[in-house]
Each structure stands twice: as C-alpha cells, then as structure tokens.
C-alpha cells in the first residue's frame, strides 16, 4: 500500500460540484437494485448447473481459477487488458466512496495505490469509520452505494461504446467471393477432424453430396450418418481445395461434438450482421474466436472510425465492461466485509430495537447464507449428481 495525499484534494474539489451533490442524492436507494441483479445471476447460474450436465462439464474443464477476477491466475483473462481494466475499475470504485463521503463532510483518512508484487492493481480510500458510523443511514447508504454504482455506470458506458465500435466495422474485401462453406475456428487436438486433415482456418465445403453453409447443416449431416463412411471436401487456409473420406464411429454420441470443431459461417458480413442484430452476443468473451474483434476475426474487418486499430479499442472496452460489471455486482452482496454487507448491517441496526448482540447474529446469518449461495455456485460443477 502506497499512501498519498493527492487523492484527498481531488475528492474535495469534485465534491463541491453540483454534479457530485446530485449524484450523492440520487444513488441513496440503488444498492438493493444492484444486489437483486447479482442474486438473480447467482440463482440463474445455479439453476443452469443443476439442470444441464454439459454446463457442469464445461465449468469443470475451465477449472476453479476461472472464477477469480485476477489476471495471471484466471486463464481466461488476458493479462494486459484486464490489468488495465482492473486498475481503472478499482480506482473508479474507491473514488465513488471518497467523493460522496466528502459531499456529506465525512472525513477521508487517506488515499493511495495498491500493489501486488510491485504491480499496481488499483487504488484505495480509507474512510474515517467513526464518522461513517455516526452518519445518517441515507448518508451512509450514498457513500457505500457510490462504489458499486460507479462500476455499473462505467460498465454500461463501456458496453455502449463497444457497440458503437462494432457498428463502425466493414468487412475487408478478399479475392474469395464464395459464401459457401463454414470456416473452422478451432480444431480439437486428437479429434476426428484433425485425423481427417482439417485445421483452423479451413473451410468445409461439402460432406457426402450435401453442401455445407451453416453449423446446422454440419450437425445434421453428421448425426444422420453415424457409422457410415463419407467423402468430405474443404478449402485449407491457403485457399487450396482438398478432399478425403472419413468414417463416423458407430458408437458416436449424436448429442456431443462428432468432428471436434468449432465452426462459423465463412461470410464475415453474416457474422457482423448477427452481432449488430443481437448485441447480447457481445457478452461472450473475445476469446470466443467468432467475436468480430477477436484475434481470429479482427483481420477480416476495418473500422470506419478508427481503422485497423479497432481491436485494441474494442478489447479494452470489453474488459472494462466485464471487470466493472462483475466488481460492482459482487460488492453489492450482503456479505459483511463488502459494501452491501455494511449497508444492510446498518439498515438492520437502524430499524430494530433489539439488543446489539442479537443484531450482530442477524447480520452474520445473512452474510453466512449469502456466502453459502456463492460457494454453491462455485462447487456445483464438482459435485457428483
């Protein structure tokens, strides 16, 4: 922890503005909304894991580290983008607490920068706990809500800007004018596709006498020919047309991948239009190679606004959205050490006439139940049922 006085002056300056005072008044009752959203996602995740074997298998394959919002440890998080996003997100979160505290004249003891192994991972604000405890419930609610709400606002802005960047993309013209076939985004090592000779970037043109133009075409032809031998024709990533024959094992499960590939329409125009019509698809991590600004798809597009540099901007915006959304929601949970837990503990205390020990027991029970729900969402993929 590196303590610095510079943040205190900044908080005092911003707290005097009309925008800061209006923001402090407006956010007073919004913590329950953020908490409800987080609980909804937790319950939805648990429900999906209970009802779907494939969901549990996918989560098991990712491993427990995929649940941590920490670059390097989480294999799904690109280090540079998420480290930058994490620093910004934590700063925005802590600045919310500090500015709103100063709006109400509450003392901020210190500010500073937090490091892990000499790497800056964010900022911190130390509020004067005695003054915070003496503040009215409305003031305390505004101060504690400001952090998660700042994250949610930045997440919304980042997502909106990401869609603007996506809307500015135009497919780059190529010599290949054919819209037939589907392009292979991934080929699983040791799979039937690899034994046939298919590679990433290959485009499957036909199997048997059927032209392949969509994922559904591929799935249907494979499932209807289990145990049979079929000719296959494809174009490799260099544009060379190739062919082979392969046999689908008679014991192949039609409900599981048969070839062992992830495919997408070979037409970048179709992919782009799909994302424009269904912006919800942008919630997928750009590690999904079908995402227009992924490393795999980005070379196929140019932005009318920012040219070929759009992948860097788009990925930065995506991870700003992802980190802020998760950080904001998690901090709103009614767990004692989090912003939500502190607020709800104060709310229970202010609305009850029972003794302090009993209040602590109630707050601890709420916190324990919430921790149990979170733990269930993490452990379900590994339970045998």
Taken as a percent bin, the fraction of beta residues is: 15-25%
The structure class reads alpha+beta
Count of extended strands = 11
Largest β-sheet summary: 6 strands, antiparallel
Write down the Rg.
26 Å
Mean pLDDT: 86
Shape: elongated
List low-confidence stretches: none
N-to-C series of helices and strands: EHHHHHEEHHEEHEEHEEEHEHHH
Compute the separation of the termini in Å: 45 Å
Number of domains: 2
How much helix, percentage-wise, in residues?
Answer: 40-55%
Account of the 3D structure:
The chain is built from 13 helices and eleven strands. It is α+β, with helices and mostly antiparallel strands. The protein folds into two domains: 2-167 and 320-382, no CATH class; 180-266, PDZ domain (Pdz3 Domain). The strands form three sheets. Strands 5, 6, 7, 8, 9 and 10 form a six-stranded antiparallel β-sheet that branches. A hairpin with a 2-residue loop joins strand 2 and strand 3 (119-127). The longest helix has 31 residues, at 137-167. The radius of gyration is 26 Å and the shape is elongated. The two termini are 45 Å apart.
């Amino acid at each position: 922890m590196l303590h610095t006085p510079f943040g205190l002056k900044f908080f005092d300056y911003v707290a005097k503005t009309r925008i800061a005072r209006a923001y402090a008044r407006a956010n007073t009752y919004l913590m329950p909304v953020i908490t409800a959203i987080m609980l909804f996602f937790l319950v939805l995740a648990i429900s999906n894991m209970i009802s779907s074997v494939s969901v549990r298998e996918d989560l098991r394959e990712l491993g427990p580290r995929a649940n941590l919002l920490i670059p390097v440890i989480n294999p799904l998080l690109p280090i540079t983008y998420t480290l930058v996003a994490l620093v910004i997100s934590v700063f925005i979160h802590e600045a919310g607490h500090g500015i709103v505290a100063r709006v109400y004249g509450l003392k901020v003891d210190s500010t500073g920068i937090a490091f892990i192994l000499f790497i800056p991972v964010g900022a911190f604000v130390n509020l004067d706990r005695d003054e915070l405890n003496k503040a009215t419930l409305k003031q305390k609610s505004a101060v504690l809500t400001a952090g998660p709400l700042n994250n949610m606002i930045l997440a919304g802005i980042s997502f909106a800007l990401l869609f603007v960047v996506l809307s500015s993309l135009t497919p780059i013209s190529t010599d290949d004018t054919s819209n037939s076939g589907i392009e292979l985004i991934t080929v699983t090592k040791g799979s039937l596709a690899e034994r046939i000779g298919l590679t990433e970037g290959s485009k499957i043109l036909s199997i048997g006498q059927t032209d392949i133009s969509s994922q559904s075409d591929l799935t249907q032809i494979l499932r209807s020919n289990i145990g049979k031998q079929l000719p296959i024709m494809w174009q490799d990533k260099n544009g060379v047309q190739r062919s082979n024959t392969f046999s689908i094992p008679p014991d192949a499960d039609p409900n599981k991948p048969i070839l062992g590939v992830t495919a997408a329409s070979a037409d970048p125009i179709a992919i782009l239009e799909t994302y424009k019509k269904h912006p919800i698809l942008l919630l997928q991590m750009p590690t999904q190679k079908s995402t227009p600004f992924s490393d795999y798809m980005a070379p196929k597009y140019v932005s009318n606004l920012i040219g070929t540099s759009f992948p860097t901007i788009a990925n930065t915006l995506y991870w700003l959205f992802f980190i802020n959304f998760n950080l904001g929601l998690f901090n709103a949970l009614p767990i004692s050490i989090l912003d939500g837990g502190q607020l709800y503990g104060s709310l229970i205390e202010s609305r009850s006439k029972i003794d302090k020990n009993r209040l602590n027991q109630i707050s601890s029970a709420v916190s324990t139940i919430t921790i149990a729900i979170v733990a269930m969402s993490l452990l379900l993929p590994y339970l045998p049922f």
